[in-house]
Amino acid sequence: MDLKSSHLSSVPAEPVIPNKSRLGTQSSLLTYSQQDLPLSPGKYSRTGSRKSAASLDDVRSNGWLDAMMASSPPKKKPLKGSNAQFSSIDFTVEDYTSSMVDHPSALDYFDKIIDGAKNKKVAVFLDYDGTLSPIVDNPDCAFMSEDMRATVRSVASYFPTAIISGRSRDKVFDLVKLTDLYYAGSHGMDIICPFSQTLSNNHPSCVKSTDHQGKEITLFQPATEFLPMIDEVFKTLVDITRDIEGVKVENHKFCVSVHYRNVNENNWTTIGQIVHDVVKKYPRLRSTHGRKVLDIRPVIDWNKGKAVEFLHESLGLNDRDDVFSIYIGDDKTDEDAFKVLRESNRGYGILVSSVKKESNAFFSLEDPTEVMKFLQLLVKWKRQGERNTSEL
User: Fold this and answer.
1) Interior CA angle at 371 toward 365 and 376, to 5°?
2) Where in the sequence is the domain holding 253, given as residue range(s)?
3) Which of 261, 279, 298 is the last residue of a domain?
4) pLDDT 10s digits, 66-116
5) Is the per-residue pLDDT at 294 higher than 80?
6) Predicted confidence (pLDDT) per residue in 342-363, tens digit
7) First to last CA, the chain
8) Which residues pair with 123 in a beta bridge?
């Protein structure tokens, strides 16, 4: 299937969704009302009604707070002397050196990576935030540069390329603004790809639709029945957190994100407790941790790794032995994709991080600038190969 000729739209016709939530608690879903919102860990609420310290300790005892801390990159540390060139990066030289031991630079090892890709069908999968764009305080301002956009466009002209993001599919399309790509939003729970009857037969959640150009497409949404619940939880969290300075709640269609990057660290326990209490009302929802964000997602057997496998199938790559995929991402949610490539021996995961992390990735890149350099090398390698072939 030729991905490049698809010109995939981000706004296909959507299936009709039932209005009534059938999957969880409806109405009366607050553990505490807005008036009972704890202002900081261990304190009384504004009304004087007591939210016990034991309640707020839930997120400490069950490991939520530790996970929130662990998923948050360290603050910038100014360095002196010979290390001054690293002063604007969120890590220490020791962190950087240690991370390179476990996950060597994909730039330094580019030739090794390409050795594995020779004479194979190469596919490229990319996260968005922290990979194609920098991590910023306001997620609405996470714009990719024009140079990065041009680079991704070049990559897509040579290789099947997909963006797999935690954002909604429409939102990430609006940010990337490129049509010759696959887009998978909501951690892979919302995928658009060219229409295939075989794909539709194999996956009940596939719906035949059309894009804005009238072309047939496949819309894959395995969590459609959760939409009313997700919308309900989004509205609830917006209401409960409205008085907490710096918090941002986003509806990514099939998941809800609660960003605490701009929240005073003293209130992180409160944020964690709020999410914990709301999710507890919905047995079929779960919370996962990202970079200073809590994501509320449906409890289904689907993630970015499953999305990679689905996209392999949509490209007709599942039954081929000559497939080599590269997945580049910076977040914990990308680990499922790294794991799929590692266990299937069908390519390499590349972690974008300047600090040491446990990861299923083979290699690393420091930041989006290095991601762009790597992608440019990939394009250069492909062009050179085509040039050499044409000269024979």
Assistant:
1) 130
2) 226-298
3) 298
4) 666 666 554 444 333 333 333 333 434 344 444 445 889 999 999 999 999
5) yes
6) 999 999 999 999 888 889 999 9
7) 28
8) 325
Q: What are phi and psi of 218, to 5 degrees?
A: -105, 130
CA distances, 379 to each of 111, 150, 180, 329, 373 (Å): 13, 11, 16, 19, 10
Amino acid at 282: Y
Residue with tokens 């990559």: 155
Q: Are residues 327 and 198 in the same domain?
A: yes
Looking at 263, 298, 333, the residue that finishes a domain is 298
Q: What is the DSSP letter of 355?
A: S
Q: And the tokens for 38?
A: 């704890």
Q: Which residues neighbour 74 within 8 Å (Cβ) at sequence distance 6 or greater?
A: 90, 91, 355
235 within a domain of the structure (yes/no): yes
Whether 144 and 255 map to the same domain: the answer is no
Tell me the average pLDDT of the chain: 80
Tell me how far apart the alpha carbons of residues 387 and 287 are, in angstroms, rounded to a whole number: 49
Q: How far apart are CA 125 and CA 307, in angstroms?
A: 10
Report if residue 274 sits inside a domain. yes
